[in-house]
Design brief:
The chain has four helices and no strands. It is mainly α and about 120 residues long.
Length: about 120
């Protein structure tokens, strides 16, 4: 057990040394590659302005997303009315979509319970 602890300490020390040598170079390169996204001057006021722009831009996109949602609902209604013309491929895609939604629901439930499968807390 002590040897594994020493190995872990050694690996952590090597990683720290690597980051201390190459971290600033990586940081500078990253900023240089993405300089078109950096706002000048970097002030609190500019950050507040950008956060408000993001919020209101998202708010303004709600009607378009709502319209897209209702188009999808109308498409599903149309498919249901003409279900006798439905192809096997379309039914398979719908079944896979339903299965994916169910799987995400189950995963969310497991995460919500703290990654326990039974929900029992000892």
């Amino acid at each position: 057990m002590a040897s594994k602890l020493r190995q872990l300490q050694s690996k952590a020390c090597q990683a720290t040394q690597f980051v201390s040598k190459h971290g600033s170079t990586y940081y500078k390169n990253l900023l240089e590659q993405n300089k078109q996204y950096i706002q000048h001057p970097p002030t609190v006021e500019k950050c507040n302005e950008l956060s408000k722009q993001l919020f209101y831009t998202r708010l303004a996109s709600i009607p378009g997303r709502t319209e897209s949602f209702w188009k999808e609902v109308d498409y599903i209604k149309h498919l249901w009315k003409n279900r006798q013309d439905l192809k096997v491929e379309d039914a398979g895609i719908a079944a896979l979509f339903g299965l994916e939604c169910f799987a995400w629901f189950c995963a969310g439930e497991i995460v919500g319970r703290g990654f326990t499968f039974t929900g029992y807390y000892p």
